[in-house]
Specification:
The complex is a heterodimer of chains A (366) and B (349). Chain A is 71% helix and 1% strand. Chain A is an all-alpha fold and 366 residues long. Chain A has two domains: 1-44 and 293-366, no CATH class; 76-282, no CATH class. The longest helix of chain A has 35 residues, at 330-364. Helix content of chain B is 48%, strand content 17%. The longest helix of chain B has 23 residues, at 147-169.
Amino acid sequence: MGVLPKKTQTKKKNPKQIVQSMFLSEYFIFYLTVICFVCVIPFVPKIITRSNLLNVMSNLWPLLVVAVGQTFVLLLGGIDLSQVSIIGVTSVIGTVLMSDSFNEGIFSKTPLWGWLIGPDGGPLAGSSMAIPICILVMLLVGTLIGIFNGFFVAQFKMPPFMVTLVTQMFLLSFAIFLTQSRNVMGLPDGFKELGKGYLGGIIPYAAILTLVITVIGYFILSKLVLGKWIYATGANETASLVSGVPIKKVTIFCYAFSGFCAAAGSAIYSARLNMGRPTLGEDLTMDIVGAAVLGGTSLLGGKGKVTWTFFGVLFYTILFNALNLFNLSYYTINIVKGFVILVAACLDVVRTKLAVKISVQDEAGV
Amino acid sequence: MKRLLSILLVATMMMTMLIGCADKKESSDDSSDGGGGGGSKDLTIAFSFEDLETEFWVAAHEIITETLTEEGYKVIELNCQGDANKQFEQVNDALTQEIDGIIMIPVDGDTAVTVTASANEADVPIVIFNRPPTSDDGNNITVVCDNATTAEATVDHMVEQAQAKFDETGKKLTPCILVGDLGDPNAIERKNGFYAAIEKKPDIFNDVIEVPTEWDAATALANLQSAVQANPDIDFIFSSSDFLFPTIQSVVEPLGKWQKIGDPNHIILGGLDGDATAGKLIDEGYVDGTGVQDLFYETDAALKAIVEAVENGDTQPDEVLTDPGFALTQSNLEEKRMDMWGNAVGAEE
């Protein structure tokens, strides 16, 4: 689903038009990522060291899984601002269940003390099944919050911005309330492996979790009728409704999937930091939405792909890594990041208009 | 036209990155020119800090970066803006650049533990500045003020003033503490020091009112406003950090309670840090005392520790360096005024 129709892409063969087709290709952001990466190498050769590339990938996985969920909501023409708080609240809920000890002086004033947690840890402390159960609980909680968001958006036609902003505020405060702003430590070593460990010394566990969810997302959007319903609902809700698309169920599903993905990202972020943290993810909104939009997903709905989001996240992660390696001041980094996202969004608009123009010209035989 | 615009946008995007790339920190460039001092220009220190919201952090940041640069070290500055995950990612990015040492002001004590583990894994020495880790796991040099003792000494002086007021009026005072982020061991220690002093004279105080601030001025403002509305008789306030004095002023001034010492409406006021604002308010007679962290001692200790570790090839030094701190009050103002870093920095400027 490039912005340029396939028929047109195959016709053009001269160098100028190859560049044009690259520009209009759905892989444009990927080409840009490669070009940026290559351009940076002479300035900072360390960017291609094994340790740095592993670091880039380690930063990529949690952001990717959250951004994939956001893509589903963006495809509807909505936005899920609550993802950042879902990360925080699920981080707390998941980790308190498996933590092996709590300092009484610190945690005795929390509302969880006595009935859920105590000096000997959470209810699953020491259990061999603690990690999978806790991750499942995190995913379940994330999904339920997503269903809640989706229900209000679909049933009452409330603006997604407002619904998810309110949920974000509520959940952030709720997460802080649960632990009275304290971090949850004392997590099992196996959980830490999710953030830093490798299966067979080669494939990171975080990559496995992320790729499984990403492939599921890809499969839903490209192979299932549900995917077509999602695109149709985002492109024209009224027409979809008239055509028999169950738009309420589709909307609820997309928000539920978004919550599910945020919870998966939370598991990875928590494992990397080896702690449960109520404010975890608090500042990630720009990264999540920015990466999805950079990939080409439209904020207006109906346009976007999981692969585009992958390219967007890859570009975003490499850009941030390169800026860090260049030892730039933090405000320079933020200025560059903001500007690059703005330019990318402008480019997306220009590419779309250009593709439409070329398509019209082709059809008119010009 | 649109094609031209597109090309221009792509070019701009690339240029932005490359221009950004060219904007390397002066400290690095200066260092490569060869500074003075005994450091080697081939050595790089990453300095990761939380943010520059308070005068204490600003002054610490300035001293650490300038001293290292003057001594010929390359400094990589990493500002995580209060985000623990970003701090973790930034330090990991720095570790891939074969840095020789890390000085870190962690977002909180738990993040210090996590980042220490990464530094230990990479065999890079790390100094935790001013905010201690919450556990002994891993090896690091921690430079920290004895917050409990310093807070207690400050509040002891405030309690003396409270006793005098109680003797004069016969009315119990209502104490209030602005508590910092409880994920920060410094905040907990300051709170403990406050209670240790208050509990010495339980008969002259009503119940303590705790106002959470999360080390954030906006949060402090909202919560203090609510607390003052609910308890209009608050007449004894200890701020866990000096940077909140302007916030306190903005809440109590409209109520006619921002008065100098000696005025019947004066609120007995104390803080901790020792910044220039507190120094000025003590001079003017609005604040009764403040606990002073010896910034110069702490930065000096941190710098010496990292330089020593780097130059001796000690990749996992493990030590705690304690700054005893002191209380600057109206009683010892003449004698200790210029020992407070806020006053010293202010005078220098």
